[in-house]
Amino acid sequence: MRVSVIQMSPGADKGANIAQARSLVEAALASERPDLIALPEMWTCLGGERAGKINAGEPLPNPGEAGGEAYEFLRGIAVAHGIHIHGGSIGERAGDKLFNTSLVFSPVGVELARYRKIHLFDITTPDGQGYRESALYGGGDEVVTCHIGGTHVGLAICYDLRFSELFLALQRRHVDLIILPAAFTLATGRDHWEVLLRARAIETQTWFAAPACCGTHLEGKGEPRQTYGHSMIIDPWGQVVACASDGPGWATARLDKALTARLRANMPVLEHRRLA
């Protein structure tokens, strides 16, 4: 299976973000012919005022029903090109709450999975910038997997990367690939992004596809915030096999399930686990 991870530089304008996503997805499809495309975290609305983020969110429909603008864009891309698409994550409006939610669609437009980000980003980065995701978003509580063709896929989002118990749970479900869309900050990304991704791939013996946001967006009342980018695909041995450059674009790799099977047979770490 060929996988492309899309790297975007989104802002608070949902329409402009959808146009950017469409352009990048169509260019990646023409160039790489992937079977699966994955978008980054919160690509529909990154930054801006609280009210704008809420307005950009969408109530998610029951599977099979019509959804909002971003939902139908994702489903339409999957159907038009006959591919699987992982929609990164978008703002899901559920009553008076927002959730940071991933969606996966089949080539015929069937919703295959819906995952709400479990771990919320409430930290102060080394450069002194404060983030409080829980002030706007609710947290999920469910480990989610789905099948994309013959590939068993586990879902995670951004800050989830720091919590190994989630990836142990996915490993115990014998996933072949973990997709982790992100909007990692520049300050944390420079030191931790690749290190953590490679560590999770090594410990789970699983392929990782990590599409990310890049560039500068404006938060709240105009404060500039930078995201790290460096979208990448990593094999189960922890090697980076594809990585995007600094700006918007994509990275593509072919997943080799035979490599996964060989590594797990030669080093059966899941069988050797004694704690937890």
Question: What separation lies between the terminal Cα atoms?
Answer: 33 Å
Rg over CA atoms:
17 Å
Number of domains: 1
Order of helices and strands: EHEHHEEEEEEEEEHEHEEEEEEHH
**Second CATH tier, the architecture:** 4-Layer Sandwich
Instruction: Output the CATH class name.
Output: Alpha Beta
Helix/strand/pairing category: alpha/beta
Strand-residue fraction?
25-35%
| Biggest beta sheet summary | 8 strands, mixed
The CATH superfamily bears the name: Carbon-nitrogen hydrolase
Number of strands: 18
**Helix count from the secondary structure assignment:** 7
Low-pLDDT residue spans: none
The mean pLDDT is: 96
- What is the global morphology? globular
Estimate percent helicity.
Answer: 25-40%
CATH topology: Nitrilase/N-carbamoyl-D-aminoacid amidohydrolase
Q: What does the oligomeric state look like here?
A: single chain
Task: Describe this entry's structure for a reader.
- The chain is an alpha/beta fold.
- The protein has a single domain (2-267), classed as 4-Layer Sandwich (Nitrilase/N-carbamoyl-D-aminoacid amidohydrolase), CATH 3.60.110.
- 29% of the residues lie in helices and 29% in strands.
- It contains seven helices and 18 strands.
- Strands 1, 2, 3, 4, 5, 6, 9 and 18 form an eight-stranded mixed sheet that branches. A six-stranded mixed sheet has the order 10-11-12-13-16-17, with helices on one face.
- The protein is globular.
